[in-house]
Write a structure and sequence with these properties.
Number of helices: 12
CATH architecture of the largest domain: Alpha-Beta Barrel
Strand content: 15-25%
Bound molecules: ligand LLP
CATH topology of the largest domain: TIM Barrel
Shape: globular
CATH superfamily of the largest domain: Alanine racemase
Number of strands: 21
Distance between the termini: 55 Å
Largest sheet: 9 strands, mixed
Radius of gyration: 22 Å
Structural class: alpha/beta
Number of domains: 2
CATH class of the largest domain: Alpha Beta
């Protein structure tokens, strides 16, 4: 790893690095930290909008933003504004998205274990597509759907493909809890059963093979399997799920959403699928990851025999990805973004376990010390959405920045928020 200044390509599109500070969306990060406190999630609206537009123009109408990667009302509305549907995987996500004003007709409902309530609500509100995962769900649908309560579905299938990514985020392999297997005949049986339900329209198949994928072979293989499987079905939609990877650390580079879509279209043609098929996807990470930066304040700096521990005011509660997947991140000093970073530290959080590491080997300028503001780029995906209150640490605030202005879209949690769940007596 180099210890030059932070690579600008990891930052949001509008980031401006100067000798004495960094601005994103025309707003100085130091200013944001002083107004909203730290830790703080900062999202660049221009980057979010550009990625949403890229997805909307690269795929066909019905392409969705995977809200599990980062969800709040403002984000759901932004995705809708930019021409995307919103994909939800639980009743909680569905509720936030509907409350935000996104119409049900722009919502795709997922879930490998949808409860009766979740399926009922999805049918009642009339989601655009329900992605059916298992036979129990088909039984539920049979009882709920009729001419007065129609439903439009995709069938989630398991193509039997191993994506090149961390095993925890691989989903297309035969041994998966998601979807119906093509190989065992379950997927065919599911389609037969669904077609027998009056009021229900099967539009096509859906396969999500995993997440943080840089190479297209897995998608190609999956589409080849789906092509073979649906050859005689006369479906009008094919959804390849999400999964496009992003660069998190120096030296990594990822394909763009457009390149991903182009590769998928080529595979669809190669698989002999009909030209009129609506080609859909559900990117999450590729839309929100690079738009987000987390700002922390450095507290204790503790040299021990082997290394120096630098502790910040957040940690595994706002970014569990290093602990869960061994994911790498970079760090920079908000006041010195153009300086070399010769100081090697282990950037840790404030939680009560040794595994609470944000960056195993972080490089920072020599002067970075207690009181400095340190930021980690590419933290827009699966950070806030997987944040916890471990050690009763309140979740950070989230701000959107655009054209020199900041707006708070999620306020910082307070101790009162945490106490609100206590049942007295
Ligand atoms: N569609 C389905 C059905 C999914 O399960 C997922 C992600 C997506 C779309 C969006 O995938 P993306 O484009 O974001 O890769 N927490 C993990 C990632 C889990 C992904 C779960 N499913 C992480 O932080 O890496």
């Amino acid at each position: 790893m180099s210890n030059g200044p932070i690579e600008e390509s990891l930052l949001p599109d509008t980031a401006d690095l100067r000798a004495d500070g960094v601005s994103v969306g025309g707003v100085d990060l130091r200013q944001l930290a002083s107004t909203f406190g730290t830790p703080l999630f900062v999202y660049d609206e221009a980057t979010l909008r550009a990625r949403c537009r890229e997805a909307a123009s690269s795929f066909d109408d019905g392409v969705a933003f995977a809200s599990k990667s980062f969800l709040c009302g403002a984000m759901a509305r932004l995705a809708l504004d930019e021409g995307l549907c919103v994909d939800v995987a639980t009743g909680g996500e569905l509720d936030i998205v509907l409350r935000s004003g996104v119409p049900a007709s722009r919502v795709i409902m997922h879930g490998n274990n949808k409860s009766a309530d979740e399926v009922t609500r999805a049918i009642e509100v009339g989601v655009h597509r329900l992605v059916v995962d298992n036979f129990e769900e088909i039984e539920r649908l049979g009882a709920l759907v009729d001419a007065q309560h129609p439903a439009n579905v995709l069938v989630r299938v398991t193509p039997g493909v191993e994506a090149h990514t961390h095993e925890y985020v691989r989903t297309g392999q035969e041994d998966s809890k998601f979807g119906f297997s093509v190989a065992t005949g379950d997927a065919r049986e599911a389609i037969t059963q669904l077609r027998a339900i009056a009021g229900l329209t099967v539009h096509g198949v859906h396969a999500h093979i995993g997440s943080q994928i840089f190479e297209f072979d897995g998608f190609r293989e999956s589409i080849a399997v789906l092509g073979e499987f649906t050859r005689h079905d006369d479906f009008d939609e094919l959804c390849v799920g999400g999964g496009l990877g992003v660069a998190y650390v120096e030296g990594e580079s990822a394909p763009s959403i457009r390149e991903w879509a182009d590769a998928i279209r080529i595979s669809v043609r190669a698989a002999g699928l009909p030209g009129g098929l609506r080609l859909l996807a559900e990117p999450g990470r590729a839309i929100v990851a690079q738009a987000g930066v987390t700002i922390y304040t450095v507290g204790v700096v503790k040299p021990v025999t082997q290394r120096t521990y630098m502790a910040v005011d957040g940690g595994m509660s706002d970014n569990p990805r290093p602990v869960l997947y061994g994911s790498g991140y970079e760090a920079f000093d908000v006041d010195r973004p153009l300086e070399a970073r010769p100081q090697e530290v282990r950037l840790v959080g404030k939680h009560c376990e040794s595994g609470d590491v944000l960056i195993d080997e972080a490089y920072l300028p020599r002067e970075t010390n207690s009181g400095s503001l340190v930021a980690t780029p590419v933290t827009g995906a699966y950070g806030y959405s997987m944040a916890s209150n471990y050690n009763r640490v309140p979740r950070p605030a989230v701000v959107f920045v655009r054209d020199g202005a900041a707006r708070e879209v999620l306020r910082r949690e307070t101790f009162d928020d945490l106490a609100r769940l206590e049942v007295s007596g």
